[in-house]
Amino acid sequence: QVQLVESGGGLVQAGGSLQLSCTTSRRTFSSFAMGWFRSAPGTDREFVALISYNGGTTDYLDSVKGRFTISRDNAKNTVYLQMNNLKPEDTAIYYCAADPNLSPQPSRVAGYYDYWGQGTRVTVSS
């Protein structure tokens, strides 16, 4: 079992920034593709960003491109989501997820991720 722990959520004004972190104790983290997803009240969980196991591939939801940056530090078993110029519509619970299957093309589809964190809440006020 892989445990993922998110942190960094909070309340911020529109235009502000937050950095989310997701860490695990598993030393095999460096072989995991990682994704960030979010769920707003009354909506399905949606893809936000992903990064391949070696950081060579990233992908973003169109509405966050240019504002959010996903990165990873395999030495620290941690993936980050830097969120700048936040908007009220970014308000959601953010989840990190791990795909341990050495997928050559990490997926935007939540079903490809085997492990999930408990989520961290991000609230952006207008």
> Which structural category do the helix and sheet elements fall into?
mainly beta
Radius of gyration: 13 Å
Low-confidence spans: pLDDT under 50, at least 5 residues? none
The secondary-structure element order is EEEEEEEEEEE
Query: How many helices does DSSP assign?
Result: 0
The biggest beta sheet is recorded as: 7 strands, mixed
| Shape estimate | globular
* Helix content percent band: under 10%
Mean pLDDT equals 94
Beta-strand fraction estimate: over 45%
Outline the structure in words.
It is a single chain. This protein has 126 residues and is mainly β. 0% of the residues lie in helices and 45% in strands. It is built from no helices and 11 strands. The N and C termini lie far apart (39 Å).
Layout of strands and helices, then pairs:
Layout: E1 5-7, E2 10-13, E3 18-23, E4 33-39, E5 46-51, E6 58-60, E7 68-73, E8 78-83, E9 92-99, E10 115-116, E11 120-125
